[in-house]
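dude i think i finally got it to work??
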Amino acid sequence: MSQTYDAQWGVNRALSRPGTYAVAPIEEARLDVPRAEWVGRPFRVLTVTSNKGGVGKTTVATNLAVYIRALREDLPILLVGFDDQNMIDRMFALEGSVPGPGVATALWTGNFDGAIRLGQYGIHYVPTSSCIGELKRELQDPLHLQRMLEKSGWRGLVIVDTKSDLEILTRNAIAASDQSIVVVQDQASLIEAEKVFAMLGELALPPERARILLSLVDLRVKFRGEDTPDVLAHLLSQIRNRGYPLFETFVSRSPKIESLYTNPEGRALSILHGAGKSIVHRQMRHLAHDVLRLLEPDRQVEATVAPAVRVFLKGLTPEAALSMPTNPLEIRRFPFLIGRENEVVHNDLVIHDLPPLQVSRSHAVLFEQGGRVGVSDCSSKLGSVVEGQKLGGAQGEVGPIFFPSYGGTLVLGTCNSPFRFAVVVEKG
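look at this
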């Protein structure tokens, strides 16, 4: 029988029997990984997905693998990419590693044997395949990936980075997942996120299996009109109105992070190792901790990322105190939106201001990252004063500005505004 070796697929293609494939003779030792402490199947699956490109999906998937590995050194992590880009190889492939079967081969043969390899930072990964898109016309079983993982004997966490579509490969990833991170950057990607939650319904999976992560949100983007929300406040309001689960942290856009993927060596550096002093570093640490809490609700995750905190907002003036349901008010959900009565955005704290107005309809947002509390402006007209520093308005920066570890003062409007608050941070 006439055969030819397809180097790109890593399989022998039997020409006289189209669609028949056999594993090529590429040898690699099976991995002996420790047992994860999970009841039921011995692995957990985390999928990072979006039906829109350019939202930072692969950045989240690859760096989450690194951060979770740093948090849980006892937990084996396997990274699988369904995209045809080679970011995973550039970040994790060890120099001088022998070429072997990639993800397309594994999917075609229904077997991860020989495809899983150990890479940088102690992350296991499956090499990417530029021709993986051809599988969309061949695979039809939405449980194909789940059966492969069950057969592989993998014990640990599997992170799947999907392509920017909702076709059969993405459907496989979501069907196998214990949790899906739906990455949203803008209105268009939020509309696409609705399709992910619809897919969960089609697969008879609860909506809690997916959670939205705001990514690459540019806080400098402002809409016209003093009482219209900025992009962050607008997206938060839309997500809450739809009732979708949402991660408390978000991932900022950062030129520093983008620079990690362009260098003379051609490698991609992790945020943990290449931008350890950036705000995105703190955001990723916080996100990794949240993901572990979702995947292991019965396990006490060591708080090596940051200690738990309780945050209170206390009105320091009669006007501020009267705007609050209780004084002080414990903030139990972040991001926490503050502004006047607003038909467009549902504020968590509604300020009842009278002319001359100090507070805009969308004024400021409090958020917590890694045990630190920060505040950003929401396109307010007069801005705020944070620990004596101007935030927002005509002259101030949009933020974020972080409070000291114990908290600080927040004045909505000018320094003479009656809406003066204390942000109190207590260690849990």
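The chain is about 25% helix and 25% strand.
im so relieved honestly
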